[in-house]
């Protein structure tokens, strides 16, 4: 929670004024028992109606002022809490989007959604209550004890015993329940995961008639959540009866002691009522504090979960951000002599010269790699937590304007290979070069600006067709969009909808077929007019005729563009300039269709399993 307090920096005034006005309200509340004592001892005792009315009016005035202070405190506390959660949610979302695929895969989508929604809301609620009650309740408790001493010291000793006993109960239950609330939130992640899987996979579940199984699975997960919540709820519920018992015993003790003193004429009946009222105030505030502690326990558990997300650092480090941080650190240095600057400049020049000399010396060896559009040099790659590499000893070059086909069985590493080019993942060993430069040296924005990516899963966003197409290029004109739609073989069905580029697309393209979604995602990448186009099995839902038209249109309309086509269909990559065959993360063969038929057994088997002898040739 300490790490998240910084989000209150813009609400320092509200964070001070909220508790301050609550304490003002509490101060007026502490005067109420004394006024009641005066009404009993003076007004009622002497049958003085005007005095009773006057003191009654004073009670009303205290109530009105207290209400005004309470509303003001609520306003400032709510403003600070909502502002805090808004800034926290913005930063959390930004941080999550900045995490690489490795971290997002490791944490899990369901957990991230829970922490963005439920956890942030719990922290907001806990902060709101803390600003209003965290100081008020202890102030009332100890204030009431002090006021009781002003009435009668002997009777007030009961308060000295009761308050520590109550504190032990309250804080003991808090210490017990906090770890359990963390367990509840973790189980909530599982319920969210089950819900998300069922909503996303609803069609698959119905296709296999597994509704009853999934309902049972969700019921089990939800049942565990209920059991955890009931268990921790029982522990928290112990607080109220135990505190009631302690307070009522204290009230009995106060009446017992003060009752004797009334008979002896030491204190008045009104002062006895004031002591009982102070004890009642302590009871009410401790109940509030008990509920507050439950809320704060939840909030702290959720805050720790949010902090753990912030502690996750992306394994993909943007060189542009590193340079920016370096410049900021440089700007913070206030003292640096001219001599040191000169030495640094001299050192930098020497390094540049050495680098140039090194490049010249290795020019012959590196020319091919540096001139290539894309080059993989002895690349090994493994997913986070995996025991074995998903890709091993990948080594090939791609010239500008070439069309490269990537083929292989399921799990052979085709998508993993393509994800290394836009640097969605980093290699474990080796280098991936784009235009002769290691992708790890590019600013991410600059690198990904060169690449148009059509992922396996066709993802569209809620909005118009024009808005979806402009994801590729913000300033794309209607002409450019229609040209991309023509190339992607999507123009025909778009025109049939009779809405043009104003066609409304539902979330994830639910109002479109699978083939239509795939063609639109291809068009979206083509609108960008990238230097490198990656089509990761993005035509799997298309029929063979449409697939053939698509390949022909892309071949004619992307002159100078380097195209990677990942597919399990031999016909899709048959005419590529170079075909790379993957098997279990290794390159089993590389070359043209005819070369691979002769030299690569894996490729020949794939072709013969899909095509006739005549089609293969």
Explain what this protein looks like in three dimensions:
This protein is α/β, with parallel strands linked by helices and 617 residues long. The strands form 3 sheets. It has a 6-stranded mixed beta sheet with strand order 6-9-10-3-11-12. It has helices spanning 12-30, 32-44, 49-98, 101-107, 109-133, 136-151, 153-200, 202-207, 211-237, 239-263, 269-311, 319-332, 338-361, 363-371, 414-419, 444-449, 465-469, 478-487, 491-496, 514-527, 544-557, 570-573, 593-599, 601-610, 613-616; strands at 374-381, 391-398, 403-408, 429-434, 437-438, 451-454, 463-464, 504-505, 532-536, 562-566, 578-583, 586-591. The model is unreliable at 359-367 (pLDDT under 50). The two termini are 67 Å apart. Helix 7 (153-200) runs antiparallel to helix 10 and helix 23 (593-599) crosses helix 24 (601-610). Strand 4 and strand 5 (437-438) form a beta hairpin. The longest helix has 50 residues, at 49-98. The protein has 2 domains: 2-311, ABC transporter type 1, transmembrane domain (ABC transporter transmembrane region fold, Up-down Bundle); 399-428 and 439-616, 3-Layer(aba) Sandwich (Rossmann fold).
Distance between the termini: 67 Å
Could you say how many structural domains there are in total?
A: 2
Main sheet specs:
6 strands, mixed
CATH superfamily of the largest domain: ABC transporter type 1, transmembrane domain
What does the oligomeric state look like here? single chain
Q: β content, as a range?
A: 5-15%
Give the uncertain stretches in residue-range form.
359-367
The assigned CATH architecture of the largest domain is: Up-down Bundle
Specify the structural class.
alpha/beta
Q: Determine the number of helices (DSSP H or I, runs of at least 4 residues).
A: 25
Helical amount: 55-70%
| Average of the residue pLDDT scores | 83
